[in-house]
Structures are given as structure tokens and as C-alpha cells.
Amino acid sequence: MRPNHKRLLASALGISILAVSAGVFAQQAGAKPETLIKWRQSAFQVIGWTCGRVKLALDATTYDKEEVVKAASALAAVSNAGLGALFAPGTEQGKGWHDTAAKQELFAVGSKAGEIAGTLARETNELVKIANTSDAAAVKVQFGKVAATCKACHDDFRVKL
Amino acid sequence: MRPNHKRLLASALGISILAVSAGVFAQQAGAKPETLIKWRQSAFQVIGWTCGRVKLALDATTYDKEEVVKAASALAAVSNAGLGALFAPGTEQGKGWHDTAAKQELFAVGSKAGEIAGTLARETNELVKIANTSDAAAVKVQFGKVAATCKACHDDFRVKL
Hints:
Largest interface: A-B, 33 and 33 residues
Order of helices and strands of chain A: HHHHHHH
Oligomer: homodimer
């Protein structure tokens, strides 16, 4: 693939915002599309698992700070791991664990998916900071921002499940 | 479930080593077995994805430190997220994305699975430290320790895939 084509594709995926280097992009794009789709579906399951744990902790009668820090840390690390590379060209359609739930609009030039991914990365990092230094009330506010970011992407770019 | 039963089950799963509190254990055990199995299969896929990225970076002609730190950070965070709770009683058999590949020996009293999970948590944390401060050669040595930990668990506790 010629460099200018790489740049075009990277731009279409909002790769610059996701901070995925061209090298990484090329490496992971070498994996089979169904493998990339499986990995991204798995990554979002881990995001769901860890978000669910933060929510459970916030709903519990006794706030378990250690649990929230642990769940939020995994949530933030996966959100910052470079998920954009898992939406490489060739993965617009196909089956990982199940048919992809990503709408075609996600892959379109000018899509806001990359921007939302950047927001997710920032808001989850902030959640870890707040979880380490603050109480349940502050965590709840920040967790609301994380959840709103998830919802924004689901509304625009995920087919109804 | 009575508290002494909780303790027995927690002991069988090496929960104390995995540092999963009884509260968390109870919360996540409230999820359906197939959901827990799906989450654990997803978590290990993310572990596979991130390990693969570290390996790719080590095999590349130019060492990409940023990529290794990012992949290792997600690897360590998931490894430290409390995976033990995803092996709760009731998940010895069943289907998540696919039939569980965990051998029954993993769930037996006195199983070393919890100990190995503790080693994975430590070795991956060490990988992040080394990735942040050192060069490819040092990362390669530590990555070998991580890979050996994965293999130890697969040899004893995963059915042949």
C-alpha cells in the first residue's frame, strides 16, 4: 500500500485522533478481518464488563474503592489501547464472534467515530484519576460522562442489538 | 449463600491470591454463567491481542516503544482486573462465545490456577515498568516471563484448542 493511501485510510478511520501509528496500523491490518472483528468485539465486552462493575459498585450500599479503581483501570487501558486499528479497512462487514454490529457510517470519511474514541480514552483516564482520589459521588458524575460517550457512539454507529 | 460456603468456594478458586473481595465475587456471581464465560473468553482474547502486539513490536526492525507501552498497559490492567471472579462456581462448564476451554482441574480445591493468575498479574505489571524505562532487549526478557506464565496455565488448565 502506498503511503498516501495509508494516510487516506487512516484519516477515514480517525486514526490520528486514536493515536495509532502507521506501523501499528499496518501490522494489525495484517491479521485476518475476522480476527480483528473478534478482537474488537472482545475489547468492547471487556469495556462492558468493567463498566458494569463500576456501576455495581456505585449502586452498592458500601462503596468499594479498590474494586472501582481496578475496574476503571482496565476500562481505561483498553479504551486507550488503540481500538481504531481493529476497525481497519476490510472489517466493515464480517463475523468475529458474531456479525459485526458496526454501522457502515463508522467507516465513512469524516465519521465522528475517531473523535468519540478519543473522548472515551480521555473520560476513562479521568475516571481512574477520580476513582483514586475521590469518593463515590465524584466517581458517579465522571462515570456518567463515560456512559454518555458510550451511548453517543452506540446511537450513531452501532446497529440495534 | 452462607459466608463459610463463600469462603470455601473462594479458597477453591484461589480468590485470595487474585485479591477479589467477597463483595465483588458475590456481585459478579450474580451474572449468568454464560455471561461470565463470555467475559472471561473476551478478556483472554484481549490478553492475546495485546501480547501479539508486543511480540510484533519486538520482531519489527524498528522498536516502537509507544506501541509496546500501550499494549502492555492494557495487558497488565486486564490481567490485574480480577479475572478470578469470572471463574465463579457454576461456570465450570458451559458456553460463552464457545464451549469453555477451561479444564475441570482449574476449579478443583488446591488448584494452582489462582497462583498462576497472581504471577501473570505481577509479570505483566513488571512488563509495563520495563517498557516505560528500558529498551527492546530488556522488554524481550520480561515478555518471555509473561509468555511462560501463559503457557504454564494453558498446559495445566486449558483443553487443547
